[in-house]
User: What shape does this take?
Amino acid sequence: MATTSDLDLVNVTKRFGSHAAVDDVTFSVAPGEFFSILGPSGCGKTTLMRMIAGFENPTSGDIRIRGKSMVGVPANRRPVNMVFQSLALFPMMNVGENVAYGLTCRGVSRSEAEERANRMLERVGLKGFGERRVTALSGGQRQRVAIARCLVLEPTLVLLDEPLGALDLKLREHMKIELKQLQATFNTTFAYITHDQSEALVMSDRIAVMNQGRFEQVGSPRELYHNPATPFVASFVGETNRWQGEVVSSSGGTVALQLPSGTVTQGTGHALQKSAVAFVRPEAVALAQSQPALRDLPNRFEGRVSAVLFDGANSSLLIDTLGFDQPVRAVLPQAGPLAGIEVGAPIHVGWTADAMKVFAA
Ligand code: ATP
Assistant: This one.
């Protein structure tokens, strides 16, 4: 059967004893796609990767690469290469030897391997680094050597297991962009696992959010952020306000939610039960110095600034709000009368019903 995807997982389950580390997972990755699997520690990401790479066998289900089943195919016979968090470079070899190693193992002649390694080093911005010891490189350069060593083998699929995890924050920010650009330049299919939502959002074409062995939602970064399908996705991807309450009325997708204080808020949601949880992104919270300025919003409340969290470009406010047992988080405007607001100042907050996503708790 013709296939248009580089990777297909079909109802893949992996059990350790009675525990399903990966539970009935199905997805496809298109050629040239940057696909991330995002989830908290212990959700099953590594187990999933190890099955794709061939280090583990699924308990049930099928794994196909370019339409060919990989079940029973040993790791070294799969058209897949993996980049680990530790990078696993060989410290006794220089940069060029590290990159050429996989080629010589596959029977490519020494001179050809060296030439291809040098070409690859040039493409990842490390021209002239071949003779250097890997121990004499910066963290970012080592990262590029690991990618070069992987890509020189021209795999159908590159698996990356938290490759930026060991880097400091500043370098991680830089490498996120660099890795995305390298992937786009080579047009190689990447499957990337991470617990860091900002990494996944910046780099991925699509993200699968994983929780307790299952995929909760698969979508583009924007889809996940603006239209989370589950409470887990809403709270795991991006900053959000979160309130618990009871549904007091619901019709045509519009929901009235009563908070424990008795305050009623308006949101949107489907298939709800009485007990519910609601999410509002901080940037969706409108702020004003007077109530009338928010009169078009169905949700309007009075509050007082309890904290100003200055973070350079994107500062936020925490607002103790009447009727809410936790402060409302909002983005601090960069300009206008509220830009210089201080702790203790009175303020009004509001949001649309669309901005408040309500789910069964
Ligand atoms: P982390 O981000 O911390 O690496 P993860 O999402 O990659 O976590 P996995 O390492 O895949 O999670 O583990 C998923 C679950 O399966 C965990 O509960 C883990 O304890 C369990 N598990 C993983 N490998 C084994 C094994 N070989 N034997 C038994 N249980 C295992």
